[in-house]
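Structure tokens please, single chain.
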Amino acid sequence: LTKFTYKTPPIQIAENLLIIFDDQNSKENHWLFIAQNWNPKSIIGVINQIIKQQNFGWITVQNPAAYFTYVIKRKPMRKPLKL
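Here you go.
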């Protein structure tokens, strides 16, 4: 995921998010929606933030996928690509 740029197709990002979170309770196309609306830099930043908070004991995450979605929705969305 760290090698992806803003030019990476959202489908590839969504596939990797599905592998990372491996949540059976996610709605269909949820990770594609995340990949289409937030760039990889923001996604990686949120994942690193969650890992750091958990390692330092600030939070205890019961459902990582739900918490990730909660945090990312408070970040600015991706601007439309100019073609």
